[in-house]
Amino acid sequence: MAAAFPAIMMAGAAISAAGAIQQGNAAKAASVYNATLKERDAANATTQADQEAQQVRWAATRAQGSLLAGYGASGVSTDTGSPLDVLANSASQAKLDEQTVLYRGKMKSTGFLSDAALSRYQGTVAQQDSQLKAASYLIGGAGQASYAYARAGG
Predict the structure, then answer these.
(1) What integer is the mean pLDDT of 80-101?
(2) Dist CA 3 CA 1 (whole Å)
(3) How confident is the model over 21-76, as pLDDT tens digits?
(4) Burial status of residue 119 (CB atoms within 10 A of its CB: 0-12, 13-18, 19 or more)
(5) Which of 28, 32, 38, 154 has its CB 3.0 to 4.6 Å from that of 127, i.e. a possible disulfide?
(6) How far is CA 149 from CA 3, 8, 16, 122, 132, in A?
(7) pTM of the model
(8) In terms of Cα–Cα distance, which of 24, 14, 41 is closest to 112?
(9) CA-CA distance, 146 to 154, in Å (whole number)?
(10) 92-117: string of b/e by CB count within 10 Å (b at 16+)?
(11) In the chain, how many domains are there?
């Protein structure tokens, strides 16, 4: 019976090592899944910003049209002076609004991509950590088994 004890200790260490590796692989798989979701969110943020920018462009075009129609109905020339300045300012502000929407979408997308990269890194670290734990379990188990074997007179 005493000779079987070191073998049982090694089996326990092997099971602990296998469990550690399984845990690391599961953590990595979860991290990869989370990263994939963040990458999808990044793409969605960019698409949403593009759509919002298009709506800003359409609103600006309608606003410019309304200004021109109002000037035309009043008999105001839009070729020079204040009406031209107002039209130019309106177009400039619309372009700034569009660029702001796109910038916010880009920053949101970049945040999601950073989160995805961090998640992938954490998965890799968890997997490496599990491999070190597995090695530790095996080495510790071998040491304990050797000690038990030596004490048993082996």
Answers:
(1) 88
(2) 5
(3) 999 999 999 999 999 999 999 999 999 999 999 999 999 999 988 888 887 788 77
(4) buried
(5) 28
(6) 7, 11, 20, 40, 25
(7) 0.74
(8) 41
(9) 9
(10) eebeebbeebbeebeebbeebbebbe
(11) 1
Can you say whether residue 81 is alpha, beta or left, with left for phi > 0 and alpha for psi between -120 and 50 degrees? left
Q: How far is CA 77 from CA 60, 70, 71, 85, in A?
A: 20, 11, 7, 12
* Closest C-alpha among 102, 9, 20 to residue 54: 102
- How many angstroms separate the most distant Cα atoms in the chain? 113
Q: Of 106, 122, 112, 105, nearest to 37 (Cα)?
A: 112
Residue 143: which domain range? Answer: 4-151
- What is the structure's pLDDT at 2? 58
Residues 110 and 120: their CA atoms lie apart, in Å, by 15
